[in-house]
Amino acid sequence: MTTAIEETLVLVKPDGVARNLTGEILRRIEAKGYSLIDIRMVQPDREILAKHYAEHEGKPFYEPLVEFMQSGPVVAMRVAGNRVIEGFRVLAGTTDPTTAAPGTIRGDFGRDWGLKVQQNLVHGSDSVESSARELALWFA
Ligand code: DAT
Ligand code: MG
Fold it and tell me: Could you give the residue numbers annotated as active site?
């Protein structure tokens, strides 16, 4: 069975950049065999974050999330490979860093800091539709 080459959006969130983990995160992506197609450092404004996180509007962590994502620079990456959308989310680990499996980015480097939003180092698109929408947003 063959699979299509996909592209996904990876964001190193402000906590990952501030903790100097951008290289370690990219190292894991490349070591897995995925290809870096484009990369840029961005200071995101509220407008792009409102679009990026539109699905979460109204949830209790939405405002803290949008504020946290504006708290410092973010590194955006366009990453390619067969099943990379699913594959990067496995590399990232589950959303809650406390219970994310060791060996994953969130499991190895993340923890709960007692804040209103979980700081979990990375974002990865969750579907083909999300990746197309998000890549258009961050690599316009
Ligand atoms: P993911 O980033 O794993 O796709 P998501 O899209 O559901 O998770 O949520 C976006 C971010 O919001 C997530 O990375 C961390 C934060 N978050 C999600 N659910 C949360 C919750 N219940 N409490 C605090 N922060 C949360
Ligand atoms: Mg998500």
Answer: 123
